[in-house]
Amino acid sequence: MALSRRALLAGAGALVIAPPVRAAGSGVRFRHVFGEIELAAPATRVVSLGSDSHDVLLALGVAPLAIRSWYGDYPYGVWPWAQPLLGDAEPVVIGGEISAETVASLAPDLIVGIGSGMSREEYDLLSRIAPVLMQEPGTSTYGTSWQTLTRTLGRAVGKDALAADLIADLERRFSETRARHPEWEGRTAVAVWQDSGQTGVYTDEDTRPRFLRELGFRPPEAVAALPSFDGFYAIVSSEDFSPIDADLVIWISGQAHASDIAALPMRGAMRARREGREIPLEEVLTGALSFGTILSLPFALREMEPLIVLALDGDPATPVPPAVETGLAP
């Protein structure tokens, strides 16, 4: 994700930005992968460049001036679970390259770069507009947990108490779900994808396996042994699906790629397939797990619980609606 060529020519006069004014030592400080920033007062004019950070801002009652469009054809890049909180706000949608001119024109007092994938060069340029908040040191680009993202943005906008309440409420929901299903504890689960003949599995720091872990599941040991890309996915050999033959198999974008999944030769060798323990997801539920935010996870939790119950009831004949609808049922 690169800034526009015009923006990168700022030093040559294509873009003139006055350095942001900061009151040293008078505000809240944040250490991050590119250094440190200080906010003299809670941010109120926020540009959200992370793929999912706008969800958190909306949950905290702050409508972003601009939103980084990830994917999905929804108004202002805001998915259904967050739309009610948008109100009458009409944020600028930033897609493709980030335009520093656009960001500067909005006069933000904070730019959220957590989960944006921006480079140090991009960070340095945007920092001439306003403080840029990146992920914590030692955290990969897309490895910030939903708890940390909520807590961090809560501090930045002066809503610490609200952020803490939102986190406690969602953690309570996960806890209550685990308590209802002690049989899930310690069973294996994977979130996998298939596209253009390539099959992959989400790993470690990704939001999707984190969701499964918070329900008591664990990843198969063989998944941890696969080479990981950026800490959040690994490619599975087309000749050996044994690493992903878990007790529960979640096909991300399963409905969109159902025909491709059905055509996979090695899927037929998976016990999970024969025993009806696969759940192919539709677009909105795929999005909810992929965003993995304080707003999307309650939706995912509510929708996923009954599907997991059906998939793991021990009877291959039990219909799992998404699998039946896509023709992927055994």
From TrEMBL:
Regions that span the bilayer: none
Gene Ontology cellular-component annotations: outer membrane-bounded periplasmic space
SUPFAM superfamilies, sorted: Helical backbone' metal receptor
Keyword RNA-binding: no
CDD domains assigned to the protein according to its UniProt record, in alphabetical order: FhuD
Organism superkingdom: Bacteria
Native organism: Amaricoccus solimangrovi
Protein name: Iron-siderophore ABC transporter substrate-binding protein
Transmembrane recorded as keyword: no
